[in-house]
Each structure stands twice: as C-alpha cells, then as structure tokens.
Amino acid sequence: MKIQVGKKELSEKQKKILRKVKVILQYVFIFLSLLIATTVAWVFRTWKGLTMEEVVFHIQAPTTGTDSGIISSFILTCPLISIVLTLVILLLHKRLGKIKDIAVLGLMVAFLAVAAFSVGYMWNRLDITAYAKNQTTESTFIEDNYADPKEVELTFPEKKRNLIYIYLESMENTYADEKSGGAFEKSRIPELAKLSLENENFSGNSTALNGGIPMYGATWTMGALFAQTSGLPLNLPIRGDLMSTQSEFLPGITNLGDILEENGYKQYFLMGSEAEFAGRDLYYKQHGNYTIYDYNYSLENGEIPEDYHVFWGYEDAKLFEFAKQHLTQISKNNEPFNFSMLTVDTHFEDGYRCKDCPNTFGDDQYANVMACSSKKVTEFVKWIQEQDFYENTTIVISGDHLTMDSNFCDDVPSSYERKVYTTYINSAVQPETEDYREYSTMDNFPTTLASLGVEISGNRLGLGTNLFSSEETLIETYGKEQVNTGLKMKSKFMDELTKDIVVENAKKVQEEEKAEAEEKKITADITVSDYDALSDSFKVSLSKVKCQLPVESIQCTVWKSDGMKALVWYEAEKQEDGTYSIEVKGSDLAHEEGSYDVIVYGQAEGYDPSVIKTVTGEIKEPESKITADVTVTNYDFRKGYFDVILSNVESTEPVTAIECTVWEKDGTVALKTYQAKRQGDGTYLLRIKAMDFYYKTGTYRILIYGQTENSPMMQMDEVFGEITG
User: Fold this and answer.
1) Cα separation of the two ends of the chain
2) Across the beta sheet with 684-689, what order do the strands follow?
3) Would 483 be classed as within a structural domain?
4) Do 647 and 629 meet the contact criterion of CB atoms below 8 Å apart?
5) Backbone angles phi, psi at 675, to 5 degrees
6) Where do the DSSP E strands lie in 171-254?
7) Would you state the torsion angle of the CA atoms of residues 684, 690, 696, 699, taken in this order, to the nearest 10 degrees?
C-alpha cells in the first residue's frame, strides 16, 4: 500500500500575512540602507578631520551636554530624510502594478550597493584596519624615544623666573589672515597674531606664524594639558573624561609641575569650569600640588553669585579679572610661582558670546568670539607687562588643541597644516637656530623649562625637544605621520604607566551615567501651530509628557533658522490637563518674518535642563500692511533730540497705533520704545530723546511698527538715526 504525504498548502490568510511581512522587511532594509548612507555623509560633513580614535571616544561618551544643534542636525539630515525617501518609494511601489516586485528588488540591490559603498568609504576614511592593527600590534616607539625627566640633569638659574602659562581653548594659527600665515582672508585674531609674530613661535626667519601640532592622545583638552606638561600622549584604558573616577593620575610620570615643585615653586591653576572634569584637579594636585581656582572655588568664595552659571561655568571676562587679582596677591610672596590658566569661551560649538564681543563678522558667532578672545588675551598680556613682577616672568601662550567646531574651518584648504596658536614671551633664552621648526605640543614641556633659564642635559624631556636648542624634534626626525603611528600603537611602556587605573571604577560610573540619563529623560509629543496674525504668535504645545522623575520645568529657546540670531527664552505654562504651552510672540523676534528653530528643554527634579526635541515655527507677514514715507531729521544738540516723521501713511484698515523701538546699531536688546503722536496734517511724529540714552553718541537702529483694527503690531520699516556730540 502506497502512502503519499503531500505538502500542506498555506491558507490565503497565511499567504497574505507572509506577503505583508516580506514587504515590511523590504522597506526596513531600504530604510536602514538609506540611514547608513545619510549618516556616513553627515558624519564626514560635520567633522571633516574625524579619526577612529575620536569615534570610539564619542561612542563611549554620554550624550549629556552634547550641543543641541548637532543633535537636531543629525535627526533632520539622517533619520528624517531616510523616512521620507522610504515613504516616497512606498507610494511609488503601490502605483507600479505588476512590475512592483521587480522594481523593489532592483531598489534593494541599488541601496545595498550604496550602503556598502558608504561603509567602505567610512572604513577607508577612518582607516579602521590600521586602527585595529595599532590596538593589537606592540611597538617600542614611545619607550625608545622617551627621555625620563627623573634621569635628565636639570640646572635652574640662581634667580628663578616666574611662569605664567595660558592655555587657549581651541585656538589655532588658522584663524589669522593668509599674510600672517593663517587661512582666512580677514583675520579673526589680529591681536594674537601680532603678539606671536613679535615674540617667539619658532618660525625662524619666516614672517609666517608657527605653532605646535597636536598629536595622537593630545587632541582634546585634558590630553592637551597632559601632553604639554609631560611630553607624552594621554593613552588610557578608560574614557579620558572618566579620570575623575581614579584616586591617582599616572603617579609614575614626572612632569612640569613635579619639577617646579621640587625646585621651590608655588603653583596655581585658574579655570572658569569645574576642575574635577576629566580628572584635571587630580592631575594638578598630584603633580605639583597646585592650588586650584575653578568655578566651584568662585562659588564657595563669593566671587560669583550662588546661582551663576553660563556656558561651562563662568566666562573669560571674569577669568581675566580673577587672574589679575590672584597674580597681584601671589606676586607679593617671596617665592617663584607658576600661574597656569585655561580659557573656555572659544569652546565648540560656536563658543560663548559675552557682552563685550564685537559684531565684526555679523552672524558668524564663532568668529566674533575668536575676535573677542584675541583682544582680551592680548589686553591681559599687556597688563602683565605693566606689573613689577614681569621683568622676571616668562609668559607661555598655547592653544590646547584644534577646534572641534563642525563647520568653522570648512573653507580651509586640505593642504593647509593646521597648528595650535603658540608664543613664548620674555623668555630667558633665544633660539640657537633661525630655521622654521616643525614641532608638536609635546615639545612645550622642555621648551617651557628652557624659557625659564633651565639648562637641560641633552635638550629632551619626555617625547619633547627644547625648541630653543638646535636638537631635532621627533617630527623633524621621523615625520608627523610616522610619529603619530608610533603613538597609536600598543605600548608596554604606556601600559606600565597606566597600570594603576581601576577600570572597574570607570565602568561603574558609565553604568550610573546610563541609568541617570534614563531617569532624567523627558519625552513628549510636541506640536507647533500656524502663525496667528491677530495674536502675532505661534504656539508650541507639549502633550503626553513622561519622565521617571517629577518635571520641574519646560523651557525653549528660539533661534532664527538661517543663523545665530534673535535668541529668546520662554518658560512653558503647565495647563490643568497636564499639557504644556509656550506662546512665541512675533514682537519678541523684532517681527522678523521667517522660519525659527525652537529647541525645547525639560528639567527633571534634581537635574539640569536637557533637550527634548527641536521643532520649527514660522512668523509670517500679516496680510494687512501699513505703508508710509519715513524721514529722520538731523540731531538737534541744543534741544537734545531728533525726529522720525511718517508721512503719506496708507493702510487697507484704519491705523490704531504706531510705535518704534530703538536699538544700538549692532545691539541685541531694545533700549527704548516710543509711541507716535498723530499730527494735524495726518503725519505721525516719533521724537527720539538723547537723555533716554544718557547722551551716548553714535548710530541707533529704529524699528517702526504699526497696528490696525484687525491686525497685530507689525513691522513697517527700519531706519537709522544718529546722536552726535
């Protein structure tokens, strides 16, 4: 007897489910391929000089504190575009009829090729093969070239010189003009460039700026501070910013602080941020017994209000004032001193624009911040030079690392060698050679000691060379690429120096950071209404607000989408139904028509605010318009005013009010508002009185607004008036 076992056929319902699963998987595949391609393109457009080491660091680092602009840029460029393109393909797929399966298959092959190309490009661009090899292949490069300060004879002068060492956040020679050796047509740092060219930067007979090259292990602030004072790369088995979890900071090394302390120096470090970050306080206290003046010191000692916090702590304007106060007191002591300090206003992304910053470069905030820093640092140096202690003091000024700002150096040619800003002022010695030197920031270690008049046997310390000598640097001997390769490779020498690092402590903190991020995370559905002409506003609404902790507040900042302009802060109002509402007023944005980025922040109980989401709102020009001929009279110094006269006033609706706000020409805050008076001849008069501006001479920007029966106050015109002496 034959028994035939046949295949059980699938029901139509099961076939339908399988077809749906197949389609879903196809489109998930297409979306992921697009996401990979757009992410790779976005990453290399945002960080042109990205290295594999930096990728690893940022993958390990928490997102807390990450610039909101970068986050929103990623979301809008990568996931959003990928979703939109996937939906477009889905809609087209439904219209293709019988050939749709073939078309989708073709698209999948095409997108697989694009994704593969993107991954391959990223692999080659980051040189992942070399990175993996360097992590596993041992090298003796560091050990072979290391001059151990413990074994080098150092001879200090009988009268020891003071040292003032100024680390400038993200400061490069690049920002100078091309004539000075920079890469910009117009210099962002004219004062600093002049200061370096008038002093010593080891450019020899050249009239161009010169500076140190930050090598592997010295491309972020703590790595830079370490390299410039120890002559070594900061190669660690843990994330660099987690050195604060340790009880010791590489106790086996001897650095600048150790040497100066041993020779009777009293040492200080001033910074406007928290010294604990990345273990900076640990490093400087353990290696040189520095007195730390940081943001927390200023809070505890009443130098700043209890609730004061801008950018990373407090701004550089305060830093330089505090430096003057400390130096004045320190210089009275009968002992040599090392006073080091670190600026912060020029930190990426876009820096911190203080009230003193110029508007030389318009909406380019980072350029304006650089220009401000150039002026402030140079003024501070001039102050030092006027003090009695200057005669026996050497000043070292060095950028810490190259800027990580995402687009500031976009137009800099790839052939241009970017270097940190460097200058030595009032050195005890002069260079033995007039050659243009090629050097790294690790060479600062012995060079700084030499500038104090210290004689160094062999002219080498750590991996650094005394640039005042004729001894070749490692870069001059081996070339930059070979030195960097040697620094990246696995080193038993560095492993021995870092053996005391407790990795478990760092892992525990990383786990706590992850748990903390989840605990304070706030999610919400956010909607933006259309612009309402009558209320002259659009509303931002938050519903389904969720957080593990109580939500203390919801705020937002509003920026002009096409630049760093018209920043306004709003506090959201909590409604009875648990939703939150923010009304963005056109009057707060100078009634400037256009698109605005609204960055929404939430603050969980016990934590600082963090970004929830970035959305977009729009201010539109009202349909009802008021037109007029505007005349600005000359300033009458006898009467102390000038007039703004509006004639031939026309509108589709009755005009109910006309007013103006007066601003300083380049100011960001309105100084005074005036209501216009209608005259008998139908004109409107705005009288601008000098006494309202304390008789300050200069040009004033005047924004004129009008209101009709059925429209809000709207901008009519912009004019300028002048108060003269």
Assistant:
1) 121
2) 626-632, 641-651, 684-689, 677-678
3) no
4) yes
5) -95, 135
6) none
7) 20
CB 558 within 8 A of CB 567: yes
Task: Provide the phi-psi class of 350: left if phi over 0, else alpha when psi is between -120 and 50, else beta.
Answer: left
Sequence-ordered list of residues with C-beta below 8 angstroms from that of 612, at least 6 positions apart, any chain: 522, 523, 524, 526, 542, 554, 600, 601, 602
Q: How many domains are contained in the chain?
A: 4
Rounded to two decimals, the pTM is 0.64
Residue 88 domain-assigned? yes
Give just the sign of the alpha carbon dihedral 145, 150, 152, 154.
Answer: positive
CATH code of the domain in which 317 resides? 3.40.720.10
Sheet bearing 580-585, strands edge to edge? 523-528, 537-546, 580-585, 573-574
Contact 135, 128 (CB under 8 A): no
- For residue 32, the number of C-alpha atoms closer than 13 Å in the C-beta half-sphere is 11
Residues 298 and 335 in one domain: yes
The amino acid present at 217, given as its one-letter code, is G
User: CA-CA distance, 722 to 725, in Å (whole number)?
Assistant: 10
CA atoms within 13 A on the CB side of 697: 4
Residues counted in the chain: 725
What distance in Å separates the CA atoms of residue 337 and residue 26, rounded to the nearest whole number?
A: 68
In the DSSP assignment, the letter for residue 572 is: P
Q: Where are the alpha helices (H) located in 301-364, listed in sequence order?
A: 316-330
- 211 lies in the same domain as 333: yes
Q: Are 463 and 232 in contact (CB under 8 A)?
A: yes
Question: Helix (H, G, I), strand (E, B), or coil: what is residue 49?
Answer: coil
How many CA atoms lie less than 13 Å away from 108 in the CB half-sphere? 15
Residues 235-285: tens digit of each pLDDT: 887 766 677 777 788 899 999 999 999 999 999 999 999 998 888 999 999
pLDDT, tens digit, 9 for 90 and up, residues 149-202: 999 999 999 999 999 999 999 999 999 999 999 999 999 999 999 999 999 999
Whether a cis peptide bond, with omega within 30° of 0, leads into 650 is: no
Neighbours of 291 (CB within 10 A): 15
